[in-house]
Amino acid sequence: MITRRNLLLSTAASGSLLLVAGCTADGPAPNPSTSPGGPVGPEETPRLDPNAHQVVTRTPAADVVVTPDAAGALAASRALLAAATAVVVLADATPPTPSASASPAASPTASARPSPSASATATPTASAAPAEEPATDPVQVAAGLARELGVPLFVDTPDLAAELDRLQTRTVIAYGTPAHVGGREVIPAPATAAELSVPGLPVAAPAPAALAVVSGEAVPAVLATLAAAGVQPQQVPAPHPGATVESTALLKANPGPVVAVGEGFGTDEQFATQVKVTRTADELPGGGIAPLPGRHMIAFYGHPETAALGMMGEQPPAEAVRRLGRLVDEYRALMPGQTVIGSFEIITTVASAAAGDDGDYSYETPIEKLMPWVEAAEANDIYVVLDLQPGRTGFLEQAKRYEELLLRPTVGLALDPEWRLKPDQKHLRQIGQVHIDEVNEVGAWLADLVAEHELPPKVLTLHQFQTRMIIDRARLDTSRPEVQYLVHVDGQGGQGAKQGTWSVIRRDLPPRVWLGWKNFEDEDIPMLTPKQTVEQVHPTPHFISYQ
After folding, report:
1. To the nearest 10°, the Cα dihedral for 150, 155, 161, 165?
2. What pTM did the predictor assign?
């Protein structure tokens, strides 16, 4: 029957990403007449047995991104399936009522689907099914049935008929009355697979032809179609193929094409570049390719030439590395099971009271003065963030000055709108601000730089302690996989006020944005200890800096 267990299999956790690799389910040996062979080529049309239902996988021509909606189920089918002679179609949101004779014990669970492995046997946990309650949501009911039968699930849309033609579909098991299935055999969907009698169903699990990643919450039709292609999800936490040590290792071990489902992967070409980077680039400190959210960074903030601007500049690089290491060790003890690394956030351009020769009220630190800090960081698995305080010039103009450093894999960027001036303004007379269009311009340039040079994704930090500092923040463009955004809440003062600022800035964050917190040694009343920071700041920040 369709149970909570099936429901769990047919949905994705919100905010998570699933890395899907081929594997088989337990069950009886397949009928030789319906046992699938290997995947066919992307342009190959398989020859099918007219007397047996089959699902045949295909090898995608290239890495591809599909949307996590009904259209995405068709796109996933086009990428992964060469044929499916039977499908489930959802045209009506009203599920059928189980018959009195369809008891849970009589209804097959998802594990009843035939496996390519002739030696496979039923799992011991299958006997627990009678204690599980049936799913009642019609979409989940349809997804559960599709999984039990081993066939894809589609929503009845105008594009469906063409895809059924390509798949050589003969039989449609329908919820409601579909309008876009052509002249095929249509069988009303039962409440459970036990009530369906169609020769050749369930079909044998096919051989998977690709890996797939699913970001966020995909509709059950997409996940059921992935399952029909013989894949099984493994969770990873962000829309990037190299989000974890495990996903990176999996891609390196499997050189074939990858299908991405969800938002945040970019275009097919952008995603393909990041797949290549995941397989070829050196992993970041702590493992994996994407900086976030797989690690928490503990940072010293400051400038190389003065102790007045933060803890980083209170000592030379070698001593700063040792001092930071002791602080990172404290956080590691407080955050067991988490990857915690160090970071230097270097004030690269400094807000200045004087206009300077270029009249921008910003001191641009020469690269040669930054290099000892960058090199010390690289030698000690410390992530570097270049912080920009641009004055009257633009963030993009200043960022381009430091392209040489941003080409290094473990160097990210930070924009500090507090110090972004209008043409007639001077520092400390007002709190600066930036329009989101300027932020997105920097993000697009940085993403293009990462893609062109096949680098791991970079963290792009936005400092903010007032809502007005980033105008129209809701339009932040987080669609590119090459850039990971972090909003750094850097208010100072009493802890009550800081928590209030934290709550306000966290509200209505754009999707796929992580959070940072700053502890001020002199300005906070009092400054939180590492233990207090972990216990009192929720959710736990992915970037904790000290100034």
Report:
1. -20
2. 0.83
